[in-house]
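Standup notes
- DV: blocked on the single-chain target, sequence here:
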Amino acid sequence: MLYGLSVRLYGLALRLASPFHTKARLWVQGRKNVWQSLEKALQGNEKPVVWVHVASLGEFEQARPVIEGLRLQHGNRFFLLLSFFSPSGYEVRKDYAQADFVTYLPIDTHANAKRWLDIIQPSLALWVKYEFWWNVLAEMQARKVPIVLFSATFRQEQFFFKPSARYFLDILQKFTQIFVQNEESLALLKEHHFDNAQVAGDTRFDRVLATVAQFEPILPVAQWRQDSPTLVAGSVWERDLEVILPTLAQKFLDLKIIFAPHEIHESTLQKIESSFPNQTIRYSQLLQGQASQDSPRVLLIDNVGMLSRLYHYGSLAYVGGAFKEGLHNILEPSAFGLPVIFGRDYRKFPEADALIKAGGAFSIRNSAEFEALLTKFLAYEAERQTAGKEAKAYIENKQGGANKVLAYLNSLALLGKAV
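- DV (later): unblocked, structure below
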């Protein structure tokens, strides 16, 4: 079977790459003892198991409002198993307090699917956005385990909907219920005769508003920033830096800048430092009290997991990924009331288009357009504030997706209490 061969080749490629690539090495090493640790974690468990699976950190943030809603409603009457596919999610959230056990999902072979489900015996499976593992889904369907996918989006150009890909479209039919983010996704599924889908919205809106409401200050950053106008450049890649560094290094010298690279590589940090000679400090150095009396202009974040809170300290935000890699989370800065700037490749992200139309986000194609936006927002405070208010209003108007998912889950009455 082509799918099975592809999965095995993918796993082989990662094992071959692991000596040379940190992320591949973590992916391989993290799965070495997965069966033993899984069996130990479930040994003696008599509670119903709710299995939540996410790809990485972004999808985990979408899952959080649902996980925490279930905990609020049902307490500890269920065992929460959280699995990740990617190290970039697992390594940051492996100690997540609301989960009873956090692990990697083994590669999707038929034998692994059977073994996994034999051990965990789930009463309910919750998957997020883009996770479509055929063997696990087929095995859960055969065992009549309810499988719910939420915060999903679909586009006509996806491989599911190609005439030659009927086999892959069958994957989606294995879900008990699919909650999509928008009407366009629902219409596409209905066009293909799905009757197991409905619109709930994107649970990320609930999550980012919770982050704002539960904000925990980062005192070293507050002391570094003081009252200066500040740009937070979050989840930036090499291509983003090529566009924004020339402008930031040469102009707007009163603007403080927080750089949070998407991947913390020493080469990336050094590239930024070389653009701002004697003007930078790393967060790890800030914690050690190495800042001089004159606070450096540029703060480099050399850890993962604190970006969402950093937006609290911004006047405006640049979010990376939209020069090829894929636009990262623009809802987080919007929820804090920041105007958001990003690159040109955002069409696969409906929230980007909606925020642009709302007047809270702005797409740039080059350094000149980036400079023009900074000039406007730093010269005209009223325009910056208006854009930030529009961004936040858009987020607030979209909340509520998690409650729709939770209402459906409770209607299943699998955890001993329906509401």
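- Follow-up: The radius of gyration is 22 Å.
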